[in-house]
Amino acid sequence: MKIGLLAGSGKLPLEFLKSASKQGYETVLFAIKGITDPGIYGSADRVYEIEPFKLGRFLSFVKKERPDKMAILGKVEHSEALSFKNLDFKAVTFLFSLKDKRAEAIIGGIIREIGKLGIEVVDPTPFLSHLLPAQGVLIGKLTRDIEKDVEFGFRIAKEIATLDIGQTVVVKKGVVVAVEGIEGTDRCIERAAELAGKGFVVCKAARKNQDMRIDVPTIGVNTIEKIGSLGGKALCIEADKTFIIDKDEVIRKAKNFGVMVIAV
Amino acid sequence: MKIGLLAGSGKLPLEFLKSASKQGYETVLFAIKGITDPGIYGSADRVYEIEPFKLGRFLSFVKKERPDKMAILGKVEHSEALSFKNLDFKAVTFLFSLKDKRAEAIIGGIIREIGKLGIEVVDPTPFLSHLLPAQGVLIGKLTRDIEKDVEFGFRIAKEIATLDIGQTVVVKKGVVVAVEGIEGTDRCIERAAELAGKGFVVCKAARKNQDMRIDVPTIGVNTIEKIGSLGGKALCIEADKTFIIDKDEVIRKAKNFGVMVIAV
């Protein structure tokens, strides 16, 4: 069995390649130049490097390889999608066909384009289930104050995520301090700290009816460092629908910073 | 007939006092020190100045005056609500009784507190209907590009407003660039310009089932200056549910900057 991977940045693509290889798959990596970490190229059986937004070129590589299945993983900064430079003809046509340019529309559209070649894009979580936390407190102590903000913030984050705006909402004492747009989670947290000072709670949620093939929430050591160094009190993520990269290190850092982590 | 006004900042309170006086009302202004513009004190028949967050003191003044009706108008920066300094006992009790601290909850709570004194808080729009735009293009030309972003952005702004997060969403080419949290409209627009460059569209919406007594969207000359100076393309507001302060000057400025203004 041959599985293809269209990879953005971050460590999820590497985790996927290792897991798929271990399960006996032949792996083909479609890497995006300047975005995919070249350090993972060695973990795939074959690599195609594509310039960003060269959709026609990408599809022709997929057609040539004809993997049995495809997966899409990793981050493409939402803000990069705004520049839209160096589009090939296929990409232009593709973008015009979208109703809007939010993550779900764009990745959903790519899934359809791959589907037109007769190749199915599959849910990658069977290869990554070890990264998905179960419900519960991962580290720290749930006080009544945190609990209230977690409950409130998570509900709002869920709505924001479902609108396909961003996944992160920062709250403090029942006030929505900051909502993530295209600036990304880190800058959203920085803004919140600047506006509200210490003691904020960061909530990250998946969409209602999250398609696990599309843009699944992901956290890692840097998320905790950002929250901890700015005086945040807690991080709330969604159980079974958030990838935690380097979980042990995440928990160690969270403990050091005194940041509570909870999966709801 | 005596009407009371609890006034935040901005020019809406002045417009209200002038209009109520013209309609023959005796006006009592409850001004918030450091927030309400003292320049409007002269337009009221009587003035009480209250320190911010001295809710007990405010209610005792209202009780003493016993106006036939009350209105609440003007801005209290959402971020100020986070500081919660100098609360009196009543305010502490009040804040603890709220399920969260969003604008709707806070102002709704104050309306209930005033209601307990047997005084009704009324919709101020009968005094301000000259500030509410009808549906249509106020200035500029609606291109197909702007139309698409207006349609998309307004729909999202409506959801955000209904969640009582903020009223403003900035979009560009089908991407939600920035969502207003507690930082206010201006800083949301600045962030959007920084992230997405020129050509963005600012959409401001009222909540679904907007209670016209609570935090009605308001724009003025500064809104247009902000958008225009940063290269924004259009401002979309909600017809009949957005106050335009200094409408003539707003339209003149928008024309100069080449910013289109549309009420949908």
TrEMBL record, chains A, B:
InterPro entries referenced in this protein's UniProt entry, alphabetically: LpxI (IPR053174), LpxI_C (IPR010415), LpxI_C_sf (IPR043167), LpxI_N (IPR041255)
LpxI N-terminal domain span: 2-131
Positions of the LpxI C-terminal domain: 140-262
Domain of life: Bacteria
UniProt xrefs under Pfam families: LpxI_C, LpxI_N
Name by which UniProt lists this protein: UDP-2,3-diacylglucosamine pyrophosphatase
Originating organism: Desulfurobacterium indicum
